Amino acid sequence: MAEKPQKTKKPTWVIDKERARRAAAAETVWLFGLHAVRDALANPERQKLRLVVTQNALDRLGEIPDGIEPEITDARTFDRVVPLPPESVHQGAALEVKALTWGKLADLALSGPGKPLLVALDRVTDPHNVGAILRSAEVFGARAVIAPSRHSAPETGALAKTASGALERQPYLRVGNLADALIELKEMGYTIIALDGTGEETLPEALEALPGRAICLVFGAEGPGLRERTRETCDKIVRIPFAADFGSLNVSNAAAVALYAASRN
Prior knowledge:
It contains eleven helices and eleven strands. 37% of the residues lie in helices and 18% in strands. The strands form two sheets. Strands 7-6-5-10-8-11-9 form a seven-stranded parallel sheet, sandwiched between helices. Strands 1-4-2-3 form a four-stranded mixed sheet.
């Protein structure tokens, strides 16, 4: 009698990757605050699971989409019903959702709405900074904000609240390796410009030499700055000119200034 062929065991790294994928698919996010919840409710691409509100917040949210049954709770018991971080300014509204899926980098970079303008974030982990950058990116017409899957701010309620609704409209794409993504963008015709205080050239000077070009602006974390491989991948390292030697901006303010300059190019 012929022996049954033995099943080939999957490598450990394959098993770990599959587990991580399943865990990510099961994860949900609690959005909070009237602006973030209202815009998420209005987004047909957002998978909505549970809406918890006070009566006052429900009255202020306006029309609720079909299929969503609000759970009305008292303001005094809200924090016990919804698992939000301490000190969250929820305004009596919280919505449990699945994270958004934005598709492939190439599709966004080549044919996404808006100007051929992207933002890449290298280890920017503060959700308030990322939320503010998403808001600026939407205002100045960028096609996407890109960040590595690890060592970056995930999609959270705090990020969404700071973004003030921009998270629902402005693509926030997480990639496996940021340097590889920048190389891919260069192959598509993008010029990669990193913002760093050590840059010898100023941002206006760099942009003046690149009229009409597709641009990706790269920002590092406050303190550690850009990682070495990220820096090596960029075409230019530039700085924002300051009026005095002590001038400095945090990463979200620097991104707003740079996006404004690049959007006028």
